[in-house]
Amino acid sequence: MAASTGKSFVSRFGVHIAVLVFVVIWTIPTLGILVSSLRDKDQIIASGWWNSFASSSQTEAGRLPAAAAQTQKDGKYVIEGNVFGDGAKRAISAFGVKAAAPTQYKAGTAADLGDGVTLQVNADGNFVLASPKAFEGDRGQRVYYASSAPPKFTTANYDAVLFSEGIGRSFMNSLTVTIPATIIPILIAAFAAYALAWMRFPGRALLIAVIIGLLVVPLQMSLIPLLKLYNGVGTFFGVPSKTYLGIWLAHTGFGLPFAIYLLRSYIAGLPREIMESARIDGASDFEIFVKIVLPLSFPVLASFAIFQFLWVWNDLLVAMVFLGTAPDQIVLTAKLNALLGSRGGNWEILTTSAFITIIVPLIVFFSLQRYFVRGLLAGSVKGG
Amino acid sequence: MAAQIFSAIFVIIIGVGGCVAYFWGANKLLDLVFPSRGVSGTAAVDNLRRQGLVRPWLFVGPAMIILTIYLIYPVIETLRLSFLDRGGANFVGLANYEWAFGDHDFRNSILNNILWLAVVPAACTFLGLIIAVLTDKIWWGTIAKSLIFLPLAISFVGASVIWKFIYEYRGEGQVQIGLLNAIIQYFGGQPQVWISLPFWNNFFLMVILIWIQTGFAMVILSSALRGIPEETLEAAVIDGANPFQIFWKIMVPQIWGTIAVVWTTITILVLKVFDIVLTMTNGQWNSQVLANLMFDWMFRGGGDFGRGATIAIIIMIAVIPIMVWNIRQANKETGGH
């Protein structure tokens, strides 16, 4: 606040810094899963994602070839080769022969292992094990080394998650739930909103009060009776009780109070003259609604559609109660919740799945932010 | 899967088409039953009056039916169920409520909910207000606001994964891949399993909701701040008020109504918070809250509807004051219209 008069350079600078700090704190968490989702899965556990552009180092263990591989050279018995074997491109910074001291010697130096035996491991993985006496036994020397791998980015996690973890299927399920559940309430709410804004009938004030009251009724109040109702209907007609139709209607019901509230306050604010001149020209309420109110209300309809889309897409509670957990019904949020249980430590799977679940809302949000903010300002009674 | 997509498209067409057909057809029918054209003058007036009586109900009818089935009936039914046993067959009086107040998990949930209510709305409103004021002064304020606003689009489950990754714990001495423990370790501290620290874990869960909701508070408050007349602020500056006085004595009182709206909206959200607790701890380590406890009882051992309904009623009771306040505010505003 020190800068509200904007006089001193220091205080203005302070505002920039303060806002920057807030922005960093608010974006870092999301950035973390985005970066991690693109990293190699071994690197995710080897180093923090903020180090992902630096080489990640890890300590590995290996065993050198046994005595059978020895050759004689300059009167010494020598075993040579490369610790990586496959020639993977990693750089060794240090090595050792005891688990307690895996990085005792620097790469490129010769380590004295006692009895005249020396071991040298170079940065590229080539080693020379030399001894004045012949090597014996069929177990080779144990060796530990700290290697660093260059940063590796990959889309393999996305392949794995989309096609073998079932996230791809859940993505389709989420779309299946969300699109009808967004579109169906709009028309129903728009008609009701028009009637509540521009038509006179007994009980109108009461209806408005009821709808404003219903805005804040916790979803929890509806769950048990509706679960019983759905089970009852399912048994009575011999149909499954967990269906897409069921959740479409449930989301419609839960979204309606906000839809009517938001649309009514907008439609009530439309200029009275337009309605009246149309009425004088002989237009019925139905015609006024379709030809004048609906086109003029486009911004608020868009606002509501974005809200409802985000709400339904992000919903977990309603989906867990009204849909099953089989692959053909489980939505993204529920799937992600299930993965948290079954794949708790597999961060390559969790971060990638999480990013897939949030990418659609983020796109909708960024492309239609204007409408979203407008809706938020008009209807800031409902809390998500 | 193709069948599923097809059925979704089919439903959209049927749903939208059905709505259009209903509204159009019902109107047409009304015009046919009470014709206003092609009849004598008095009959036309009479019929127009009758149409005017019926038509509003055609418009609000579908919405009323759905609201009744999905919200009004369930509220009454939940209240009834809270006095019945687990299967909903026998009347048990206040036994469910007595059970609730004696139950360890329930009392823990109530305490945690109070903690959430005390911290989250206040933190969101305060941070939102600060950020709104600060971003108003800089040229890249809009971009900053967009970025802080962004978490609002993320689901609670997604946000939970994001933050679980930040709280991730590895044994001491190992490479910490969770940001928080990495920072702690960098400064020589002891890494912790943050979400299983009783009492404090509540705050680590609250951070997630604050992270999501601050953007909401910021946007609403920012627009309210813009509504303060320029002259008021200028007059204060001329009178020699310092920035803190301007903020606390001019700005805050001017937007008091908006602050109340933001506060109550987040309060209601907090009462319903479920996803975060379910995905982060599922109520373990004393982090249970009412909404998650209710969900738990809905399905535990085949479901105890009596106890589940009782917990829902208690959440509802906490919401009622805000509901009444909202209705009164709305009545005041719309009064004439």
Overall description:
The complex is a heterodimer of chains A (384) and B (337). Chain A has 384 residues and is of the alpha+beta class. Chain A has helices at 9-37, 41-46, 156-163, 167-198, 204-215, 220-237, 244-268, 272-280, 285-296, 298-314, 317-322, 332-342, 347-367, 369-378; strands at residues 56-63, 71-73, 76-82, 91-96, 105-106, 110-114, 117-121, 126-131, 142-149. In chain A, strands 2-3-8-7-6 form a five-stranded antiparallel β-sheet, with no helix packed on it. Chain A is elongated. Residues 1-6 of chain A have low confidence and may be disordered. Chain B has 14 helices and no strands. Chain B has helices at residues 2-33, 41-81, 95-102, 104-135, 141-149, 156-167, 179-186, 200-226, 230-238, 243-254, 256-271, 275-280, 290-299, 305-334. The model of chain B has no long low-confidence stretch (mean pLDDT 88). The chains are: A alpha+beta (384), B mainly alpha (337). The interface between A and B is large, with 125 and 121 residues.
Radius of gyration of chain A: 33 Å
Strand arrangement, largest sheet of chain A?
A: 2-3-8-7-6
The level of helicity of chain B is over 70%
Order of helices and strands of chain A: HHEEEEEEEEEHHHHHHHHHHHH
CATH C-level label of the largest domain in chain B = Mainly Alpha
Rg of chain B is 27 Å
Structural class of chain A: alpha+beta
Number of domains of chain A: 3
> How many strands appear in the DSSP assignment of chain B?
0
Largest sheet of chain B: none
CATH class of the largest domain in chain A: Mainly Alpha
Oligomer: heterodimer
Largest interface: A-B, 125 and 121 residues
| Backbone shape of chain B | globular
CATH level-two architecture of the largest domain in chain B:
Orthogonal Bundle
